[in-house]
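Summary of Year 1 activities. Much of the first year was spent building the evaluation harness for sequence design. The harness presents a backbone, in tokenized form, and records the residue chosen at every position. We chose the following record to illustrate the format because it has been used consistently in internal testing since the harness was completed.
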């Protein structure tokens, strides 16, 4: 696993995800057009994954603040981002509940759960 956190803050800010459509999402009134991660008190744009449409633990490890309990993954408009079993198992060892669903649904899930805190979202905005 890589060392050093990108999202090191344990302060979880409640963002509101709005107006998702293929290739874009609005977060607290700001439009984003690249894949992103909402973690702690940060929105990290241009989220890159090692294997493109397959989510591996290294893709998310640096983005999980201490105390993360839920990870919502938006798998794209058509669900093209896959979450292999090794990633599911890795989350389980960290006591993180992983929810992977099409991005439109993932945005709604995040909005519903964000008030509980301790939630991170990774959103693939296209396919």
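For this record, the design step produced the sequence shown next.
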């Amino acid at each position: 696993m890589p060392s050093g956190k990108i999202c090191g803050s344990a302060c979880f800010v409640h963002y509101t995800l709005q107006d998702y459509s293929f290739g874009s999402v609005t977060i607290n009134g700001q439009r984003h057009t690249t894949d992103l991660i909402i973690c702690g008190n940060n929105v990290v744009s241009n989220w890159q994954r090692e294997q493109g449409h397959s989510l591996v633990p290294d893709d998310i490890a640096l983005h999980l603040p201490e105390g993360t309990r839920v990870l919502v993954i938006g798998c794209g408009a058509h669900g093209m981002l896959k979450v292999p079993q090794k990633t599911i198992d890795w989350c389980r060892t960290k006591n993180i509940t992983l929810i992977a669903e099409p991005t439109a649904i993932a945005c709604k899930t995040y909005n519903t759960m964000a008030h509980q805190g301790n939630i991170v979202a990774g959103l693939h905005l296209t396919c």
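The domain at 17-123 is CATH 3.40.1230.10 (Hypothetical Protein Mth938; Chain: A,). Quantitative recovery figures across the full test set are reported in Table 2.
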